């Protein structure tokens, strides 16, 4: 009876997860579909999360069917306690545990077991309300799985020795791809090359991404962001001609400004607004924020930086009547963005991260490669992917573009 009571203490936590994380699950399911690894597992949790642990082998219900050993070899269902004090209600085959329920006051595990260790597929619930389902190896989350907990976002993807590595994206023709360009796509030095806007097709996603493509890479360019200005004295000499030609092709276009830590945000916003075109249907303006730690320190620290960033964002939004997008690197997110929760909450985020795993934050756009290839453009090109599919892309255009 004591063991049953101990198990049942975890069941309210499962119900809490299923009800308190509705928004998180809805966001994930809205931005993914059955092509994405783990989608069906998460969808199953969203539907049955409050009862999953009671349905798996070794569930509390199996306590009602604890049998006896057959001769010397344990066969069937039995109960034991390991050296750590954890109770195991398991299914035995030739004296070896193959699956079951293992619990103590801190955690509850149900699934495959080798000996007394979680190995194979299983799910767990810890006392702090963290639920995990997926692959295990020697009592560690290892392989594919997903974790969800109160006040955190869902983590779906690859795990290694209990560490979350990230979500592996499968690249298919159904995803929405785009590019961002500056004067460098027109050549270096004296040699200048035009962009052949009527021939644009993405043919290479970058070295770290090709292994996760499905089929041949031959994707249309569905959006373009063009660098317009930097600081208060640098303009992209190709901005206007690229804007006109891209618009002639019907490609959604946006402009970005490269932020300087040496000049007030208000002056930079004015320079950007004075040298950039904003027309109905254009993508929202972007603030490219890539400061070095030394530059942040020189201007007075993160508080001073975000104060000037907010000034730029508000001034540009007032003029364009569109909420800008914040472009940052993954390292900037990890190191600084937690100091500006209002920006993280109120603005769409576009992240540069050149690894095989999708950024572990909610985002609008992901710059997944700096060295892609595009027919019609000479040299390497930044390749971006929208976080969602066609329906979400259409909603983004409806809600975020200039009116």
CA-based gyration radius = 26 Å
Helix percentage: 25-40%
Number of separate strands: 20
Structural class: alpha+beta
The major β-sheet equals: 10 strands, antiparallel
Low-confidence stretches at least 5 residues in length (pLDDT < 50)? 1-8, 54-71
User: What is the overall silhouette?
Assistant: elongated
How many helices? The count is 12
Distance between the termini: 65 Å
Q: Strand order, main sheet: write it out.
A: 1-2-3-4-5-6-7-8-9-18
As a percent range, the share of strand residues is 25-35%
Mean pLDDT: 86
What features would you describe in this structure?
- The chain has 403 residues and is α+β, with helices and mostly antiparallel strands.
- It contains 12 helices and 20 strands.
- Helix 3 packs antiparallel against helix 4 (39-48) and helix 7 packs parallel to helix 9.
- 35% of the residues are buried.
């Amino acid at each position: 009876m004591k063991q049953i009571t101990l198990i049942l203490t975890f069941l309210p936590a499962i119900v809490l997860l299923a009800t308190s994380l509705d928004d998180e699950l809805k966001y994930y399911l809205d931005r993914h579909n059955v092509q994405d690894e783990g989608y069906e597992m998460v969808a199953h949790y969203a539907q049955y999360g409050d009862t999953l642990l009671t349905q798996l082998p070794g569930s509390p219900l199996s306590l009602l069917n604890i049998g006896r050993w057959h001769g010397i070899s344990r066969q069937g269902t039995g109960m034991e306690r390991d050296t750590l004090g954890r109770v195991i209600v398991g299914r035995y085959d030739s004296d070896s545990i193959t699956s079951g329920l293992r619990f103590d006051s801190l955690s509850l595990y149900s699934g495959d077991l080798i000996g007394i260790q979680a190995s194979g597929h299983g799910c767990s619930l810890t006392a702090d309300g963290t639920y995990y389902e997926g692959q295990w190896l020697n009592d560690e989350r290892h392989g594919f799985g997903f974790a969800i907990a109160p006040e955190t976002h869902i983590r779906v993807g690859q795990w290694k020795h209990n560490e979350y590595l990230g979500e592996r994206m499968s690249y298919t023709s159904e995803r929405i791809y785009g590019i961002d360009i500056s004067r460098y796509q027109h050549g270096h030095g004296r040699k200048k090359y035009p962009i052949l806007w009527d021939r644009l097709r993405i043919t290479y996603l970058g070295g770290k991404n090709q292994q996760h493509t499905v089929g041949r890479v031959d994707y249309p360019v569905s959006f373009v962001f063009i660098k317009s200005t930097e600081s208060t004295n640098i303009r992209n000499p190709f901005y206007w001609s690229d804007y006109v030609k891209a618009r002639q092709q019907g490609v959604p276009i946006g402009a970005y400004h490269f932020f300087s830590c040496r000049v007030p945000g208000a002056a930079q916003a004015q320079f950007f607004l004075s040298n950039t075109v904003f027309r109905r249907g254009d993508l929202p303006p972007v603030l490219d924020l890539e400061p070095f730690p030394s530059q942040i320190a020189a201007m007075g620290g993160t508080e001073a930086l975000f104060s000037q960033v907010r000034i730029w964002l508000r001034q540009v939004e007032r003029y364009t009547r569109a909420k800008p997008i914040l472009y940052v690197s993954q390292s900037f997110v990890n190191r600084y963005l937690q100091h500006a929760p209002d920006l993280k909450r109120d603005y769409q985020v576009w992240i540069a991260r050149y690894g095989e795993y999708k950024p572990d934050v909610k985002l609008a756009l992901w710059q997944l490669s700096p060295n892609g290839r595009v027919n019609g453009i000479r040299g390497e090109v930044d390749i971006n992917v929208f976080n969602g599919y066609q329906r979400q892309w259409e909603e983004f255009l409806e809600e975020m573009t200039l009116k």
